[in-house]
Amino acid sequence: MALQKAGYSGRILGVSSDDTIRAASERGAIHQRATLEEAAASADLIYLAQPISGILSTLDRLGSLPLRPGSLVTDAGSTKIEIVRKATAALPGVCFLGGHPMAGKETRGVEAADADLFRGRAYLLTPRSPADLESPAARTLIGWIRKIGSTVFMLTPEEHDTTVAYTSHLPQMASTALASVLAALPDDRLPIAGPGALDMTRLALSAYDIWKDILDTNGEAIDHALTVYIDKLTEIRHNLQTQRLGDEFEVAADAAIRLRRQ
């Protein structure tokens, strides 16, 4: 939908379940359905937008299929080390470029699709080497990423997983923890919650079956981020009535302002 809004006029094939294909066709997100075999043989770009375990499985399947010469395989997985490692093993000689649009929502599926989802968002690419960016297909993909409104950032898979453990995965864990604490309140107290509670628990609506794969493939980095966060909460707890907490407010406000300037 984003590509078409940005002017893309080529054919878009959909490989998914019957219900998803039907919904995607009705919304104009795809032009026709295809099997993975048909898509692999004819597509210039194969874009894997599945849970991480699904992406890993599909990469294995693609490794046994003939792909169109000069085509590019990319993905939208939330972690990159395991995916890039699998692509390297399963697709030798095939152009693969790991990707992660930082444009997630707490809802999923075709019904939640939005042609403007990527506008103003970071789009992370994790090439295995600088040569991965030099193929005509890779340059075309990067051009379209910019046309749909995203800013492209290049990271190694290791840099990606370490960074998003803080910027994406930690916020999810914090939101889930807060909502779990609020779950203990009586039902007649929940309407008293202000917009801050709503804002901070939005991510708690996310599905665990998606996050299980993220935790399985980036557990060490997420554990480290949680340790740093818990240490900070403990420090705040110990300074509830000291000026040091005022200093933390200033540091935090500055960071929040810088985040919103990006």
In short:
By secondary structure, this protein is α/β, with parallel strands linked by helices. It has helices spanning 2-5, 18-27, 36-42, 52-62, 81-90, 136-147, 157-182, 195-200, 208-238, 243-261; strands at 13-14, 32-33, 45-48, 72-75, 95-101, 122-126, 151-154. It folds into two domains: 2-155, NAD(P)-binding Rossmann-like Domain (Rossmann fold); 160-261, 6-phosphogluconate dehydrogenase C-terminal like domain (6-phosphogluconate dehydrogenase C-terminal fold), CATH 1.10.3660.10.
Describe this structure in words.
- By secondary structure, the protein is α/β, with parallel strands linked by helices.
- It folds into 2 domains: 2-155, Rossmann fold, CATH 3.40.50.720; 160-261, 6-phosphogluconate dehydrogenase C-terminal fold, CATH 1.10.3660.
- Helices cover 52% and strands 11% of the residues.
- It has 10 helices and 7 strands.
- It has helices spanning 2-5, 18-27, 36-42, 52-62, 81-90, 136-147, 157-182, 195-200, 208-238, 243-261; strands at residues 13-14, 32-33, 45-48, 72-75, 95-101, 122-126, 151-154.
- The longest helix is centred in the last third of the chain and has 31 residues, at 208-238.
- The relative contact order is 0.10.
- The mean pLDDT is 95.
Q: In sequence order, what are the helices and strands, one letter per element?
A: HEHEHEHEHEEHEHHHH
Distance between the termini: 24 Å
| Fraction of helical residues | 40-55%
Number of strands: 7
Question: What is the CA-based Rg, rounded?
Answer: 21 Å
CATH class of the largest domain: Alpha Beta
Poorly predicted runs: none
Q: Structural class per helix/strand content? A: alpha/beta
CATH superfamily of the largest domain: NAD(P)-binding Rossmann-like Domain
Mean pLDDT: 95
**Number of individual domains:** 2
Q: How does the major sheet shape up?
A: 5 strands, mixed
Basic shape:
globular
Count of alpha and pi helical runs: 10
> Could you name the CATH topology of the largest domain?
Rossmann fold
